[in-house]
Amino acid sequence: MAAHTSLEDSLALVLSPTQLGAQLWEGAHSASGLPWWAAIPAATLAVRGALLPLSLKAYAASANVTLLHRAVTASRSVAEAVAEADEQRRGERERKEDAAEGDKAEAQSSSGRGGGNGSAVAVGALGRVDLVRRVAAHMRAQHSVPSFAWYLANAAVQVPLAVSLTLALRRMCDSLWPGLTGEGLLYFTDLTAPPVYLQTLSTPFGTAGAILPLGLVLLYVSAMDRSAGGRSPGINIALKLLSLPLYCAALLQPHAVLLYWGSTAACQMGLYAAADRMPALRRAAGVPEGLLAPPAETDDASAADTAVPLEALLLSLAESYAKSGNKVAAAACLEALLTKQPGNTQAEERLRALS
């Protein structure tokens, strides 16, 4: 009977993430002998340190966001080159027909109509979404960017863990867990109290209660600026708009939760700062240089260092389309390459093989 009860207790502990989180917090507090205001950041640092390899791999994989942004821009250049080559090829063919038929005016009129339609057909053969996907695949292989699955795997581990630890601290504060009411720091000696009680709209710490929520928001904004998504203007604005609801939510959280959130944000900032300043760490994690450049470097310089030559991109796209059986798109890319580089033997050989 005792063994059966012990098994049930163990299963209940595993199946209840909140209870497991409470045991983790209490274990860190008891093992370290630190007061709660120091035990919470110390435990957070230990957890994030254990997950550091996964976090670094996810940081490297986040370069896919920057890569996708550049792939969209590069795909436009490819489409323009294909359209230009198609118009030039049609113009040359029609000029030959003009010389043979002697009807120059009528040929020029048909050239204006036929060239535009032909260009649309040639560009349409590439496929907008498919073209961006293939350009991104070429860039990913060129810069050895890890799969975006690493980023999703990190989120699948970190997010449930953060939610479980947050809910555990909330329940511990609601139950007035021993020590939480008197082992705070400075003005927030009671870690179970929030900056604002929503029911009564009272502020137990006065204006000082806004310090931790404000510090949390500042850490969040700084981390967003250093992230891969933050380097894209649209994503940066969208992420920063979340700072207002984050601040409102932080005002209602116990200070124990705010300490945990602030420690988590500080650890993320520390990861970005370490990766920016330590090239050896970036190489060990497989962070692609240039795609996740330090903030001190300008975006223009970073983009120039990692730019893909259009000619090499056209050749790679032609091979990719040919392997998938889209010979029309492959031929369009090769003809655009020959327009840019007349006499390119490699492009001529591949074009003859497609005929």
Automatic annotation (TrEMBL):
Any idea which GO molecular function terms this record carries?
Answer: membrane insertase activity
Which topology term describes how it sits in the membrane?
Multi-pass membrane protein
Q: What is its main location?
A: membrane
Q: Does the keyword Zinc apply?
A: no
What are the coiled-coil residue ranges? none
Q: Where is the composition biased (Basic and acidic residues)?
A: 86-106
Give the CC-aspect GO terms: chloroplast thylakoid membrane
Q: Where is it located?
A: Membrane
Record-level GO BP terms = protein insertion into membrane; protein localization to chloroplast; thylakoid membrane organization
Region Disordered, annotated ranges: 82-118
> Does the keyword Transport belong to this entry?
no
Give the residue spans that cross the bilayer: 148-169, 196-221
Keyword annotations of the record: Membrane, Transmembrane, Transmembrane helix
Question: What is stated as this protein's family in its record?
Answer: Belongs to the OXA1/ALB3/YidC (TC 2.A.9.2) family.
The name this protein goes by in its record:
Uncharacterized protein
Species annotation: Gonium pectorale (Green alga)
